[in-house]
Amino acid sequence: MPRSERSPLLLAGLLAAAGVTHFAAPRPYDTTIPRALPGPPRAWTYASGAAELALAAGVALPRTRKVAALATAAFFVGVFPANVKMALDWRDRPTPLKAAAFGRLPLQVPLVLWARSVAHSTEGRSGQS
């Protein structure tokens, strides 16, 4: 399978794995939910996990891939404030944890670009199975 054909499946796998962890181990995600959001953090953790699972399914299916990949790019932008909050909250943690939290921030850019490239590589191929 050529690399360009694997890319959507790898993105779907990343989204699915992240989505599952929101349900399997929600506590770390709860702490990243900005306080300005209404309702309990756990509801947002579960909602974002469900969104990642739905996006994973959409990206995996050729028929919905383009729209789902564009939605994934928007999702990656939308969760950026939670990543910033985590980095700020972790600034007093041990260096490896602090480095991981701050290191995640610039990773959002390639994730957004990856999702957009999956959407654009699907141009003209929607509806294929």
Automatic annotation (TrEMBL):
Organism, scientific name: Streptomyces vulcanius
This protein's record includes keyword Transmembrane helix: yes
Signal sequence extent: 1-24
Taxonomy, superkingdom: Bacteria
Name of this chain's protein: DoxX family protein
Segments crossing the lipid bilayer: 68-88
Keyword annotations from UniProtKB, A to Z: Membrane, Signal, Transmembrane, Transmembrane helix
